[in-house]
């Protein structure tokens, strides 16, 4: 991955790794005790708060089991101090029934010492829930 120094560079490296399916590359960019929270449709395994790299690794596994992400676009990076907020969009097929939903999303990262210390994300929970009803 190379050395990413600024919070923006670290976050961009996270998305580059995600885009190529490199989950170990993402985990390498996280603090050992990372605090990872995602607000999504109620009842999904990836909705909630997860602490530590191993929990985040399981979180990514939960995402893959629940969602077939067809398009994923980080569109705007807003950096300030140790925080980076990313505005994006995705098109996803809910598994296993195959309904497709589109949603805007917001991801907020806190980067300390060149690693992601905190992640907080959310998307349109109504769109995701409707795709599973």
Automatic annotation (TrEMBL):
It comes from the Bacteria. InterPro entries: NTF2-like_dom_sf, SnoaL-like. Residues 11-118 form the SnoaL-like domain. It comes from Ramlibacter henchirensis. This is SnoaL-like domain-containing protein.
């Amino acid at each position: 991955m190379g050395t990413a120094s600024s919070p923006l560079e670290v976050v961009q490296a996270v998305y580059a790794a995600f885009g190529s399916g490199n989950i170990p590359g993402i985990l390498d960019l996280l603090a050992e005790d990372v605090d990872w929270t995602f607000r999504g449709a109620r009842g999904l395994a990836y909705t909630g708060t997860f602490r530590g790299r191993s929990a985040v690794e399981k979180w990514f596994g939960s995402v893959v089991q629940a969602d077939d992400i067809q398009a994923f676009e980080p569109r705007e990076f807003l950096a300030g101090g140790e925080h980076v907020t990313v505005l994006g969009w995705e098109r996803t097929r809910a598994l296993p029934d195959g309904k497709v939903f589109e949603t805007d999303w917001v991801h907020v990262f806190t980067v300390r010492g060149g690693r992601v210390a905190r992640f907080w994300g959310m998307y349109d929970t109504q769109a995701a829930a409707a795709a599973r009803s």
